Amino acid sequence: MNKIDGGVTAAKGFQAAGIYAGIKKKRKDMALVYSTVPANAAGTFTTNVVKAAPVKWDIKITKESKFVQAVVLNSGVANACTGEIGEQNNLRMAQAVGKALDIPAEAVYTASTGVIGKQLPIEVIEEGAKALSSELCDSIEAGSLAAEAIMTTDTYSKESAVHFIVGGKEITVGGMAKGSGMIHPNMATMLGVVTTDLAISKELLQEALSENVKHTFNMISVDRDTSTNDSLLLLANGLAGNKEITEKNDDYENFCEALSIVTTDLAKKMAADGEGATKLFEVQVVGANTEEEAIILSKSIITSNLVKTAVYGSDANWGRILCAMGYSGVSFDPDVVDLSIESAEGKLKLVEQGMATDYSEEFATKILSAKEVKAIADMKQGTASATAWGCDLTYDYVKINADYRS
Amino acid sequence: MNKIDGGVTAAKGFQAAGIYAGIKKKRKDMALVYSTVPANAAGTFTTNVVKAAPVKWDIKITKESKFVQAVVLNSGVANACTGEIGEQNNLRMAQAVGKALDIPAEAVYTASTGVIGKQLPIEVIEEGAKALSSELCDSIEAGSLAAEAIMTTDTYSKESAVHFIVGGKEITVGGMAKGSGMIHPNMATMLGVVTTDLAISKELLQEALSENVKHTFNMISVDRDTSTNDSLLLLANGLAGNKEITEKNDDYENFCEALSIVTTDLAKKMAADGEGATKLFEVQVVGANTEEEAIILSKSIITSNLVKTAVYGSDANWGRILCAMGYSGVSFDPDVVDLSIESAEGKLKLVEQGMATDYSEEFATKILSAKEVKAIADMKQGTASATAWGCDLTYDYVKINADYRS
Description:
11 helices; Ubiquitin-like (UB roll); alpha+beta; homodimer; L-amino peptidase D-ALA esterase/amidase; nine-stranded mixed β-sheet
């Protein structure tokens, strides 16, 4: 299992492109990912009742299409809350790519991100689809251009890839994703595309993805706002030449591990680049009764505005962490809980059996001043654990979101 | 039903005091409310699993004591996560007041607010209790001093009072409360004390209060953080001379209405004075299937960081409102929803049947620039409705909470 450079073009037979089509004012705004052969596809999508037009389309494609061969994505306009015109525009977006690549529209996933409530500039998109298909390339750079073109308020693009072996064949899993506001995924995150040259049945591909997101994308939060457009799409084209995986054997487990490395990496990058964030904040809850309770507890801490502002201020205000667990809905005995913080600067136990230890505030502040900080809560109830990732809440989060549309 | 000046000392037979005892650096930090005769008492308290020592004490008093005659409150230290020493200190606080006033400690409610995890400076508190009891007075000013002494990050003190008539007797209900961070009450809010000279049975008093908070304190949120110390305490001493209310007749309904005026007023003041807030933000959800769903929908909007920052920026980013309803957990058809905004500047429909109307962004911004702004969502499902109150999310919220302890 080796981490390598690259993203959606790392696996065999995948090409990509990213261009400026004219949706945004200046920056790149359209991306295309293409498999030279038909691929099995899986997807997980937002649980928000308000679903964007591309999400509705992709859910249908995932269910009904035998194969998928392309993913077209735009940034700038989310195509959410756009009614029937929005659905027609989305179809036209898929058709334009289908026509340019000579594949059925039903083999094209779509994804949009940006402002809610505005219609897509569909002629611009149709021209963009043509331009994208003529620029497709299997280089690492082409993957990076695609990753760049799906950014909105992200400050850097997010890619990740790994190599591993199945039956003597080298397999690659690579992906890209974007944040960085309205991030509190529930089934998937804002936009993510992962590709692999593994041969695997469609059913197992979906199962691997659905299981995976529970521990990766669904464990991050920037602002507790679950978006209307969350989509994570996974394409497997089989070009690595392994014998197709059709049962949950060691090869399947290997793939799940590789997928987890890529998606965890992308998820953490997304949390660290949360709108306005200066720090990646990781929360581990251990010793919980059940995994579900550990997840609820860790997400309650990671999403508390008061905890997030304390992390921003490098203030070891542990009372807020205990408070956030207290209102999470999980029952526990606060008088036995231990709480520690950790970073590259060191590790420190702040709370033992529910009460403050005689810790040094100075050292605590030093630990919390690092770029990546961790809090560990031991519930002393059982053996279940969970890890969640978030970021601090800063002036810049307010600034970005008080005038996002202007 | 007449609104009048005053707070906890407005009703007959109630005295109060507020002093600087030495818990905080400079500002007033201890308050006392006293009834010259034994009073029936009711309380609602935080649902946080982590409960402060005074909350545990008050729950016991509410259940076991025949009457209550005083409420002692301190600001600066919350006496939460303080273990057995914290409970002993809380008892000493009640005993000091009991001794000074010559009443049983079990007739004294306690309340603390401030930093979590620090022990009370109990000698300072005991001296403070003595000083408070010698300064008790039934003037409106004395009530105001008490309201001032319970403030933490509040920028102004919160009081409210009304007059009404029961059986020819003039009855008064008056109260005080404080915010303004860690405010997402669930059963009651941070700290609130309401007094009345009405004669009413203990059972009905509790029932009136429990029903009341569902529509008042439980409908506000500053930061979605439910505190460890939330307590709303209600004392009724019967000195108005009415025949004791022992059944749910018209007099009871009258009292509920008076109580609602006082608590809604206090709750709205608390929301408007949320940490860093520049605006009171009210959300009305109408046309919902059930009241419970209307409550969930309105609170989901009022607590969304993205909606709150948009309100701060006077940006009619209605997609975020629809998005927040969409992830609330309530099922509805987004394609039929209407959305309007309203303030002293005017009223404007932004969304009709799930899509943007052709509204003027300029006028929308003007409406949202007022000090009190309202959003109204019509779900077109049924006839149930709910109103929630919150505030905008600003730079100052981050500033206040990034260095609250220092």
